[in-house]
Amino acid sequence: MADPRPAPAEFAVFDGDLDADWTERYMKTSRLAVDTEAMGLIHGRDRLCLVQIADAEDRVSCVRIGLGQSEAPNLQRLMEAQAVEKVFHFARFDVAALASGLGLAVNPLFCTKGGSRLGRTYTPRHGLKDLVMELVGVELDKGAQSSDWGRVDELTDVQLAYAANDGRYLLPARERLETMLRREGRWDLALRCFQCIPVMSELDRLRFHQTFEH
Fold first, then answer.
1. How far is CA 83 from the centre of its chain?
2. Tens of pLDDT along 80-94?
3. What count of other Cβ atoms lies within 10 Å of the Cβ of residue 3?
4. What are the φ and ψ backbone dihedral angles of 53, each rounded to 5 degrees?
5. Neighbours of 189 (CB within 10 A)
6. End-to-end CA distance of the chain, in Å?
7. For the residues of 47-107, what is the DSSP string, one character each?
8. Cβ contacts of 108 within 8 Å, gap of 6 or more
9. 196 CB-near residues (< 8 Å, 6+ apart)
């Protein structure tokens, strides 16, 4: 039975960048869940529109990225903070989107999709919805996934709720994946894989496809 979770403990929407207060709150945590929304899947063509962040206390923020915006100093400080682990689902895309849209070099990071592929070898289902349902017991509503994120000033409550929920459950999923990966003797391998993601993301942005294929 899915466990419908209430609204976040705190929720805020910002234009262009986090404010100083929320930045300082997040800087004091050991890890954060991060997600992004873009106009599509091709970096450089499809612009970054929204950055969602959640911490272990269920404080969720959505940062709307304006048309033509190329920097966000507070987000940069947070995403590049060595003391704060950033947890993504399919980090390869989000890291490339943040680099392409705002020039951010995210580090360190954890990818729940990569962790799932290494740990949950009993299933081919590694999408966020299946992962969260099994490990956290929450059924995500993905109805707003394919929608127009470019109208950042007019995002609906449904879109914002969808965006917030995509990040809220990454931290508990990450904890369960770590337990599984350690149990199966694959934790060190996972960490080494995550260190490769920024390079893979840069190759994606530069349109180097199948670089390691024969």
1. 17
2. 999 999 999 999 999
3. 9
4. -135, 140
5. 12
6. 46
7. -EEEEEEE-TT-EEEEEEPPTT----HHHHHHHT-TTSEEEESSHHHHHHHHHHHH-----
8. 82, 85, 86, 194
9. none
Do 52 and 167 contact (CB within 8 A), yes or no? Answer: yes
Q: What is the CA radius of gyration of the chain?
A: 16
The burial of 114, by beta-carbon neighbours within 10 Å (0-12 exposed, 13-18 middle, 19 or more buried), is given as buried
**What's the pLDDT tens digit per position in 102-134?**
999 999 999 999 999 999 999 999 999 999 999
Tell me which CATH code domain 10-205 carries: 3.30.420.10
Nearest CA to 28 out of 84, 76, 75 is that of: 84
Smallest CA-to-CA distance from 79 within 94, 58, 57 is with: 94
Give the number of other CB atoms < 10 A from CB of residue 186. Answer: 16
Q: Is 150 helix (H, G, I), strand (E, B) or coil?
A: coil
Q: Which residue has the higher pLDDT, 189 or 145?
A: 189
Look up tokens 């809220």; give the residue: 168
